[in-house]
Specification:
This protein is mainly alpha-helical. The chain starts with a helix and ends with a helix. 87% of the residues lie in helices and 0% in strands. The protein has one domain. The protein contains 2 helices and no strands.
Length: 31
């Protein structure tokens, strides 16, 4: 399981999640 976490970090999964979160907020604001 630890290997999976390391792989996610390597792929910038956290950055992807954060970007998606910010995009969702922006879309909601536009609505």
């Amino acid at each position: 399981m630890e290997d999976l976490k390391q792989s996610l970090k390597g792929l910038g999964w956290y950055d992807f999640f954060y970007s998606t979160y910010v995009s969702t907020i922006r879309v909601s604001a536009e609505l």
